[in-house]
Structures are given as C-alpha cells and as structure tokens.
Design goal:
146 residues, 6 strands, 6-stranded mixed sheet
Length: 146
C-alpha cells in the first residue's frame, strides 16, 4: 500500500500525519511561518506518498467556515507542484485530538504541536477507512462554496 499524508491547516501550525499500511501516525507540526508548503513537499517526496489529504474545515452544518479558504488555498499550492490532493471533512478533529490528549493526562497548553499532528492523524485515519478502492475525499475541482 502506498503511503498517504494528511494535513491539518491552522493559522499558527500545520499538523502532518503519515500512513504506515493502514495506520495513521502523527508525524510533526510545522510553523505556518516556516514555509510549510516546501516542508510538506519535502515530506511527500521522502515518504513517496500517493496522495495528500488536506482537512476541509466546515462548520457543524457543513458550510464553509472562516478557515475553509485557507485550507483550500494551501491544498491548491500543493497541487500546483504536481501532488495529488484530496479534501477531507475535518469537523471536530482538533477537538477530538485535544480530548484524547486530556484523557492521556497531558495538558493541552503544553502540547499544542502534538495536537496539530494528532488532528492530522485523525483526518488520515478517516481517509484510510473511507478509501475502499478509491481515494477518499473530494477533488479540489469539485469544491464549491456552500
């Protein structure tokens, strides 16, 4: 099985996760000011990924949120470099990552970088479970404002 990456785009950090077989593993968090597109491209090349799943932050009703366009713009920058990119609904992944961290006894304030990578792992886990022979998510060309 080819590797996949997942990206959780945030205003301060970008969480990255990679697949190992059917497992989604948190990889790292990249500062949004440290040329994150270049770093994601570097990781994608190193890991020889088939596709990059980018979290699509929608509100609870399924409509675009304030951060939706940022995620789409980031995905387009990756796609412009010839990477296959798919968008995955990421509602509540950061909240779920925070809850998982809290349940493991860690303080959220001290673990923000891990939360972003864990949120990316949740996005990737959902994508891997959704593939069923085809890539999961929505192609960039099929994204329309809701």
């Amino acid at each position: 099985m080819s590797r996949r990456l997942a990206i959780d785009v945030g205003s301060a950090r970008i969480g990255v996760a990679v697949s190992e077989g059917t497992l989604a593993l948190p990889l790292e968090s990249i500062s949004a000011t440290d040329n994150p597109v270049a770093r994601v491209l570097e990781i994608a090349e190193q890991k020889q990924v088939l596709v990059v799943y980018v979290g699509l932050p929608l509100n609870l009703k399924g409509n675009f949120s304030a951060s939706t366009q940022s995620a789409i713009d980031f995905a387009k920058l990756l796609a412009n470099h010839g990477i296959s990119v798919r968008m995955i609904d990421e509602r509540l992944t950061t909240k779920s990552a925070q809850q998982m961290l809290h349940l493991s006894g860690k303080k959220v304030k001290e673990s923000r970088e891990y939360i972003d990578a864990q949120a990316a792992a949740l996005i990737l886990d959902f994508a891997l479970n959704s593939e069923r022979g085809n890539l999961a998510g929505v192609a960039l060309d099929d994204i329309t404002d809701r």
